[in-house]
Structure prediction request, 598 residues.
Amino acid sequence: MSGKKVSRPCHHCKSRSAPVDTPKIHYEKFWLYRHCSSVQQMDRQAQKAGQLFSGLLAMNVVFLGSAFICCMIFNHVAITLADVWILLSILKVVCLCWIIYYLLGTSRQPHAVLYRDSHAGAIWIRGSVLLFGGFSILLNVFQIGYSTILIHCKSRVEILFPAIGIIFICTQAYFLWHHSKDCIQVQHNFTRCGLMLTIATNLLLWLLAVTNDTIHMEIESQLREVERRFAGNETTLCTCPNTTMCKVFQKGYILLYPFNTEYCLVCCSVLYVMWKNVGRRITHHHVPDTKPKFKVHGVVFGPLLGAAAVIIGTCVFMLYQIQTTGLVPSRQTFVMYYSYYIVLLPLMSVGAVIGTIIHALEKKELDTLKNPTRSLDVILLMGAALGQIGMSYFSIVALVATDPGDLLNSLILSYSVLLIFQNITQNVFIIDGLHRQRFVAAPEAKHTGHVGQHTVAAELPGEEETTRSSEQEHTQTSPGKEEDTKDEQNHETYNQRRVSVIELGQEIRKASLSYIHSYSHLSWKRRALREISFFLVLCNIILWVMPTFGAHPAFENGLERSFYGYSTWFVIVNFGLPLGVFYRMHSVGGLLEVYVTA
Prediction:
């Protein structure tokens, strides 16, 4: 053998010199991967099929009920209002059976509710369900009382229908309050069908309320015409007798009537979110770590301007209601009403534009997570705004075609244009704010907050000295000699009142200094967003109150009515006006969320 050594390749040297390509794992070849992916695809297909089937069910129910209601309007002899009430009563009973089954059966099954959507069922939504539901119950009570008094000329269905309505409202309100956040994981298709059937029932109740209000206002207007032409003549209509109880039921029914339409629309929005959440699985990053709370810190000018708008609007509304109680409303009443809107709407539009610009300057990251509640909010804002925008365009065409140079016509024309611009700018501001991520306070902010408390305490010199001196003064009041007990008591009560007044002043001063510190601690962008949001919240509240409680100048001024005709303008107003009222209420919720997350 020769003395030469054969050099063998070293595995470590080979790995260092030339990296070895690791073999790529093809997961598609594994049976488990293929099985899981096929199961996920089947789940998605089953979910889409269930949503499609339940949507078709609701569509058919809505079309059937709409056909009944339209036949009742155009041919009230063949299909009467009692027939529509019987159909809706059957739907209410079916929905009640499903809700009770969900409460007692579906939701109590093991692993039924594993996830809850934190974005769904906000407190203002559930609070509005309880508020409008309570007023709707009172409305049904007044309707039962009114129909009982006039039982000689009314059918018994008019008593049975509101009685079933009270049970339906109470059960549905309880269901939405406790289960609006549920992401149910069992009985998917049955739950979807139940939710869609309940949505369809609420939509039909809303449609009936709108059309029935149209007929009610038409009859009332015709009765006014009869009273003008034939004063003193008796009529054979089914009228309320001249008793206090009947007048209370009648006035209460008319006053509470708009709340029923609002209740139906709010319930539809909550039920739709529940329908989207059926079978949904929420990961941990969907749940926010900290829930922002509503605090009135950091706003000064927004509440002041908004309170001024609310006070002035309330005065205008009261004067308008007093003036329109007569048979012929005065021209000055409409001038005052539209002038208030012409002043307020540009301020709201400017605030919304400034808020949108600040959102662009903030450069916050967009919240791109899947959120059915936010998507529904955007759809409702855009859809409900179409009511006021559509009425405004009809008014613009009618006024331009008649006499735009007249004072009242020019005011209504300006009001219509400003209303369109205000709805668009406010929608952009709210939608942009809803899609921004929430502001998360840094730990330094908490530290500065504690420092701010110490500075507030340090800025109150002499606080302890005044309390100590008052205590010493109180202890030294005991006389060295015997005096009258009455003088002692008077002196002690005087010192106690003096101490309480000093402490009250110090507490007020401390609270004001802490409020000023919290106001100055915010950045100017967040401060401006909160001011604008709070101002718009109060403005939308007063613009919701005025049409809800009877201010309907779009029909009472008579200009558009004479141009389009009585029946056509009635349909336009009574479909656009409830949507406008719902838009103002829904805008308040969106603006509150923008305020909280700013």
